[in-house]
Give the backbone structure.
Amino acid sequence: MKKKNGFWGRFLTFLLFFFLYAPIIVLIIFSFNSTKSRTVWTGFTLDWYVKLFHNSSILSALYTTLLISVLAALIATIIGTFASIGIFNMKKRPRELIMQVNNIPVINADIITGVSLCILFVFLGKKLGFELGFGTLLIAHITFNIPYVILSVLPKLRQLDKNLFEAAQDLGCTWMQAFFKVIIPQIKPGIVNGLLMAFTLSVDDFVISYFTAGSVETLSMRIYAMTKKRISPEINAVSTILFATVLLLLIIINVREARQEKAAEKRRASFKS
């Protein structure tokens, strides 16, 4: 019975991953197809990638996406790190309440976040005299990135010795030196993980960007606009690059977390011995 259950479990898992990744694999394969056919393989070529990097609209959208992603990730990481420290030093009940509020954007549907931010920006725009554009898009990305940074940094703060900060001050550090030379290096892995997560989410976002970008166009929005016409293999090429970028960043995040866990286990083992 155990063998049968094990076989069916592995088989269902295989089917799950097959249906998840088969369309992406087909997309990647046909991004190298020598013709525009989406059903018949006629030969290998890199022409669609060459044409992609000569497409000014796509390059402009790519530049906007990278700029927004880098700025949003950096700003969200700074705000999220200080917010994590503040939350960590709260009493239990307020901390639990704040964490529940922090988790709402993570669980909430993107379309609700996008529509609500759009309504807010339009309302404020009429009062303050601005329109949807680069600024509102950047603020939207920072907003939905901050909760993920907090969730990445807080576990590292919980692992800290509670007396570490006071010990650094007893040894002659000012509070600023103790913070930047003792606390920050200890929680640096969580900060870097939060930064990478924020960047990945910004690059990959479409729904929230669609409602808050105004006349600005990101790469995901450019791809959506291209699909309204006849689908070009350039879409396959740009989608492949986007998928590879996000996959690479996720691999980096997972490898970092695995190394951090091994390092933590070694430190615990050395303390026990």
About this structure: The chain has a mean pLDDT of 85. Residues 233-272 form the longest helix (40 residues). The radius of gyration is 23 Å.
